Structures
1.
Amino acid sequence: MTFLLDLTLPTPAENLALDEALLDEAEAAPEPIETLRLWEPAAPMVVVGRSSKVANEVCVEACRRLAVPVLRRTSGGAAVVTGPGCLMYALVLSLQRRPSLRMVEHAHRVVLDRIAAALAPLAPRVCRRGTSDLALGDDKFSGNSIRMKQTHLLYHGTLLYDFPLRLIDECLAMPPRQPEYRKGRGHRAFVTNLAVPKESLRRALVAAWTATQPRCDWPRDLTAQLVALRYTSADWNGL
């Protein structure tokens, strides 16, 4: 059974912390816990990968001018811009139930192929591209990343559906690593919206993971601890 948590918290720090808290909660549980969380930021934000160098990937001065916060997530990958018009999802999956997911490349294939199949009735050209992207042909609308622990993994990402794409140009530098299919294109030429209503995207993700059991609780205390320890820390965020 995969639980469904449809929850957006008030601040960027709380929302990133909750993804990590769901993973840590599952790691500490005596039995496997699998959860699909859906959320959408109330305002634009930049999220960099765990090992990203902010100065290399983010237009910091532009973000300050636009009042766009920059935070670091617990998973890898390059910087993304998210906000209203971008549905976020987080999957906590059991490595005991799904041992093949311990191989990172296989985990990317399994998760993204399942999501692509769920989206295909809404947008037939959806496909997995590069290491961890979903695209419409050669145009990316979803970036994703992974954090692996002992008994569970966190797989989370973005689904752009009505996002102001100019913000990506304004807030992000060209990434230091690019998939071959990008062909050196700038952000505006490479990234697109998947023009599908948010509720349709939500239903597709819920169906893909048969997340039919709503969660009535979530790790509030652990989320608050992680906010204080990491996500409001300039040292952690690299600013």
2.
Amino acid sequence: MTVFKYFWKILLSQKVGILIYFGIMVGLTFVFSDTSGNNQLDFVSVSRDIVIFDEDESALSVGLVDFLSEYHQLVEIENSVQAIEDALFFQEVSYVLTIPAGFEHDFLIDPSQGRLENIKDPESINGFYIDGQIESFLITLATYINADFTPEYALRNTMVDLNNHITVEMLADYPPNNALYFFRFAAFTILAIIATAIAPIFFVMNKKEIARRNESASMSLIKQNGQLALGCVLGSVTLWSMLIAVPFLLFGDEMLTTVNALRVVNSFALLVVAVGIAFLLGNVITNYYGLTGAISVVGMFLGFLSGVFIPLEAFSENMRAFARFLPTYWYVSINDMLGHANVVDRNMMGDFWQGILIQLGFGIAIFAVTLMIIRQKKMHALI
């Protein structure tokens, strides 16, 4: 088992690169997944420091000031251009509102004529957020005024309406996103780890001095290739198993579903593709630095153009048509199709097995092309 032992020696020499990609995968998992087990989402209204100059001092203007004071902190500054500019520049306040004299009079005659003046940082979203609150207040108030309600009634009910809050609760039995995001990014990790571990082995074995020594050895080439193939199978499956163990350790019982079992099968189909790519790169590229560069380029290329890093929903029709010629597209399509499903129907299973067979077809095609390239190289070497 000399070749088999040599195989593992080369593989272990790539442990740094393998651990780096494992770290990237775990990091992405923590960023995009909720590993705390708490899927509750809360909306919190943002409070800002604002300035209001009420030059009208009417019932409506006071009502607007009271409304904004429930959400924001009112700050007092001098009503001068220099003081306002300094406060905004040094971010002491986020918004300066001026309610001009005659605001209530104009608003009651025609709500569209009630003008307000404001100064805000055009590059900050805070000002537009406060604009939206003021607009909601004025639109609601105008609705009551146009319906011939008295200003007092309109103002009172506007405050009541805008202070009503809706409580949103997440359904407890809604399937979490954890596995969905983990297996999406696992596409890049599987390709990168397998290529980093396996491709250098073929690169080393193809060096002239090593290839000549193997040819002159007492062990037949059939046995050597058999041990090499055995090492590839065991090495790739071991690395894949270590990667797949990560979500089981992080998410626990969440992984024990039929949908996630199908995701594991999907990742194994991509493993075949990854080994094929590693086999191709290791036998075609003859420079070590070129090999490491090619591994990164291929991984990023497949990641960005097949929906791993950019959701397929953001793809144009032409991009999606091109992506169909990439094996990772079918992997991501299966993962997204499974989505949050609790059960898998017959149509989904049909699409699932179609995607699996296409990935396996890609893997077999890559192996076949690589064998043809190896054969051509040997024929040219004999000539």
3.
Amino acid sequence: MNILVIDGQGGKLGCQMVKSIAEKYPDAKLMAVGTNSAATVAMAKAGAHQAATGENPLIVACRKADIIIGPIGIVIADSLFGEITPAMAVAVAQADAVRILMPVNRCDNIVAGVPDLSLTALILDAMAKLESVMQR
């Protein structure tokens, strides 16, 4: 199973997701793509098997992923303070993968009906969703 974690800015959310996935699913191929080098380094240190930075690595990784995990902004062009290019958003949205999108209500993207959750609560919920997908 190829799991792709995408994150930007400081990579805090992605780092915690990578750690949690690596602990629970040691046999999964864990890829990480940061929209900047700080996010990539954080996810690589957290245990990603492969890590890269930027638009083209994200597009290529989306083609290989079975599951994509990241903040909801990864499917919205110009989100994450402009770090998500239109091509990146399209690659994630059109990927033949299950997407687990975390509703981070920041950067002028607010998801109605979803309470503001702590990063810990988002990680726990994303891991529960991943567990459900992995058991299919």
